[in-house]
Specification:
The protein has about 375 residues and is an alpha+beta fold. The chain has three domains: about 140 residues, Outer membrane lipoprotein wza domain like (Outer membrane lipoprotein wza fold like, Roll); about 90 residues, wza like domain (wza like fold); about 80 residues, Outer membrane lipoprotein wza fold like (Roll). The protein has nine helices and 18 strands. The strands form five sheets. Strands 1-17-16-18-14-15 form a six-stranded mixed β-sheet, with helices on both faces. Strands 10-9-13-11-12 form a five-stranded mixed β-sheet. Strands 5-2-8 form a three-stranded antiparallel β-sheet, with helices on one face. A hairpin with a 3-residue loop joins strand 6 and strand 7. The longest helix has 26 residues.
């Protein structure tokens, strides 16, 4: 019996010593006075492909928690320039002069007068022919004439084929009394926001100028051009700060230029956490550790060695990163400071390529699409 007790005691001591030495090998205390240099998480992104899963072969800072980095760009919007001629559309008011005769013209005809309500609520009367929702105007004697999609010269030529039935050698002059068919909406931190109407082809810079500039709280990196409910691949920040004329695209009727303020700062945490979704960013900033702590990891089923981060630099440029969060927790790397709009994904296990990761994150991105940065919407949600 004594031998059995001695044998059990010996086994227990060996196991205890093994655990102690193993633990010490991983988490041993450094001698007093030791200075351990830990460089910051800065790095240089190289190439357009996923980097190797070891920092030593990627040329990055080996003390950084970033395992992989990939710069992603979106090609700027490229469209042919519009016709320099104004194209008439619904709700425009035309002024039509037929041989100077009021009874044939829109001028001086009370039947052709149109009530105009301005954007500030002022009501005025404009004599002229209003283009209805079907694109037609009503003229004395002639009746309905379709003009939607035509230039002023084309309308004039068309009327010149009609009026010889009523007048000898008539002449016709057509111009626009009120421009109402090509609205542009300026929303957000403009000094003069609202609805404006283009009287000729406008490019993006000319459209922004309609708002008389923007105030000091404008967040240009998040500014966006919205067309038919989609965010266009246009970098307004690069256009205004660096003069990149590739971004100075032509506007189309119904376009919205939106410049948000810089007060609404948040990041997003998805994946193996209990509280997924947006997370407010305090004034003093937010680290990856704080964000994950606020979102609360699940009790089991997560991989902290390959946390994915989607970072937006502008509307057409972003960055994909893989972060070894365990390295930060061991104290081998400084805390990773997050930026506004960062999307953090805590995987259940080590994912393969970024395509696999995006497929996992996509449903969550779709649920919060209205809150995400323009780059994320353009690159991953515009399909």
């Amino acid at each position: 019996m004594k031998q059995t007790r001695y044998l059990k005691l010996s086994v227990f001591l060996l196991l205890a010593l093994s655990l102690i030495f193993t633990s010490c090998a991983r988490y041993r205390d450094v001698p007093p006075g030791t200075v351990k240099e830990i460089r910051g998480p800065g790095f240089e992104s190289v190439g357009m492909k996923d980097l190797p899963k070891t920092n030593s072969t990627s040329g990055q800072n080996t003390d950084s928690s970033i395992v992989e980095a990939q710069i992603v760009t979106v090609l700027p919007l490229a469209e042919p320039p519009p016709s320099p001629e104004y194209i008439v559309g619904p709700f425009d008011v035309l002024n039509i002069n037929v041989s100077g005769k009021p009874e044939f013209s829109s001028m001086g005809s009370t039947a052709g007068s149109v009530t105009i309500v301005s954007t500030v609520g002022m009501v005025s009367q404009a004599t002229g022919c209003r283009v209805d929702g079907s694109g037609n105007i009503q003229l004395p004697y002639v009746g309905s004439v379709h003009v939607w999609g035509m230039t002023l010269q084309e309308i004039q030529d068309r009327l010149m084929t009609i009026y010889p039935k009523y007048l000898n050698e008539p002449w016709v002059i057509v111009d626009v009394k009120e421009f109402r068919s090509c609205p542009v909406y300026l929303l957000g931190q403009f000094r003069n926001s609202g609805t404006f109407y283009m009287d000729r082809p406008f490019n993006l810079l000319q459209g922004i100028a309609l708002g008389s500039g923007y105030d000091s709280s404008a967040d240009l990196t998040s500014a966006r051009l919205i067309r038919e409910k989609k965010i266009m691949p246009v970098d307004i920040h690069d256009l205004l700060t660096n003069g990149d004329q590739r971004q100075n695209v032509w506007l189309k009727p119904g376009d919205t230029i939106y410049i948000p303020d810089n007060k609404d700062r948040q990041v997003f945490v998805f994946g193996a956490v209990k509280k997924s979704g947006p997370l407010p960013m305090p004034t003093g900033g937010l680290s990856l550790s704080q964000a994950i702590a606020s979102a609360e990891l699940r009790d089991t089923g997560y991989d902290l060695n390959y946390i994915r981060i989607i970072r937006s630099h502008s509307a057409t440029r972003g960055e994909l990163m893989v972060v070894d969060f365990e390295k930060i927790m061991r104290g081998d790397a400084l805390p990773l400071v997050l930026r506004k709009g960062d999307i953090i994904y805590v995987p259940k296990s080590n994912l393969g390529s970024w395509n696999d990761a995006i497929a996992e994150i996509l449903p969550s991105l779709q649920a919060f699409s209205a809150l995400l940065q323009p780059f994320v919407n353009i690159k991953y949600l515009s399909q």
